[in-house]
Amino acid sequence: xxxxxxxxxxxxxxxxxxxxxxxxxxxxxxxxxxxxxxxxxxxxxxxxxxxxxxxxxxxxxxxxxxxxxxxxxxxxxxxxxxxxxxxxxxxxxxxxxxxxxxxxxxxxxxxxxxxxxxxxxxxxxxxxxxxxxxxxxxxxxxxxxxxxxxxxxxxxxxxxxxxxxxxxxxxxxxxxxxxxxxxxxxxxxxxxxxxxxxxxxxxxxxxxxxxxxxxxxxxxxxxxxxxxxxxxxxxxxxxxxxxxxxxxxxxxxxxxxxxxxxxxxxxxxxxxxxxxxxxxxxxxxxxxxxxxxxxxxxxxxxxxxxxxxxxxxxxxxxxxxxxxxxxxxxxxxxxxxxxxxxxxxxxxxxxxxxxxxxxxxxxxxxxxxxxxxxxxxxxxxxxxxxxxxxxxxxxxxxxxxxxxxxxxxxxxxxxxxxxxxxxxxxxxxxxxxxxxxxxxxxxxxxxxxxxxxxxxxxxxxxxxxxxxxxxxxxxxxxxxxxxxxxxxxxxxxxxxxxxxxxxx
Length: 504
Prior knowledge:
Blueprint: H1 4-28, H2 32-43, H3 56-76, H4 80-83, H5 87-113, H6 117-126, H7 132-142, H8 150-160, H9 162-178, H10 183-214, H11 222-240, H12 245-257, H13 264-289, H14 292-295, H15 299-321, H16 329-337, H17 343-348, H18 351-354, H19 360-379, H20 382-388, E1 413-419, E2 440-447, E3 450-452, E4 465-471, H21 475-483, E5 502-503
């Protein structure tokens, strides 16, 4: 066994290499998970690194812990006002859509590859979960914005469809092992997982939002430590009583993220970095677990199933689930296309291995190959398909303003980061004409990668990013001034009716 310091050295080098390669993924328009997996495979037994790793239990545990932080981070950044209008559609996609995708792909596997029905459905269940983080990473890299409510729908679907995929996987594995899974047991299991998981998550989120403001720690660094421990506790507490820990963590984070509490902005940034670290470590570990030489046996079936998943199973799940939604046909086509596979399918692929199923190694390699294929085929084409299906909005302008106000119970002021949208009523007007509420001050204007010192005669332009120091009691009044559009313009795109508002 290698000395501990050498293990740390190798791990740190692999992480640093993976972080460096994220820049390449951005330039290529590919999800970073592909490069993380490739680094892991190159470092593994079949690669030049020759690191022998075959402990599937450790890989699974690493994946679950990483998934806790990834979902907690995603939940913190989920804006309830944006996802609320698409909540029902997202729910049907994350439940009925998962079942339909599982069924469509499972039936194809059964009849085309002549596998037993239960094992065929197991493959479908494992690969049914989507990863919106991979989609949004590509969109951010290309500065692409989506019209309408597609983004919040994909965001909420990916955060809530993991429990359904996990439940189907566990039920099917139990059925294969015992051939005795009654309808009552399934109903009870679903109730425990979904209802109890959601209830625990909701209660935990409310409790955390209160706790953050009540526990006035002397050291600000204790807040992220408290959040890490809380996220792990929520998962473990829910899982220990038979509920979905993943669902509980995500809902708790959504509740917390839509509440006002001390150190909110810094906590979101911290978990964003922690989630990225979790992804790197998870995919590196899973990459080490894979033997590339064994992937040759699944290339043919993997390519066939990837095509069926992308062009048939996913569209079936989307179009039937969204049958009664108000989304247009072109939007449904785009949603069908961007159902990228990511972390959860690869983690679920370890379940048949730990369960000791004879077909376990084959399923793991097959799912691994399909995930890579999905990311490669769909990942690079997202900006192109967004334009093709008419859902591409104006490119986002990312402002980098190095000013942050620490959240504190001792201040009555907030610093708002606002972007002047197209058709804004304030565009072309001077600051002196705005008539801001008392105790409101525009401190910085960010325009064309430069900072403008504001004065009364400064003219606002579309796309400007401004920092407004405002009394907490006047926040809504300030927002209303900058969200008001020109009355002569009829804007039908809901995405253009809101500002990118971030509380700092």
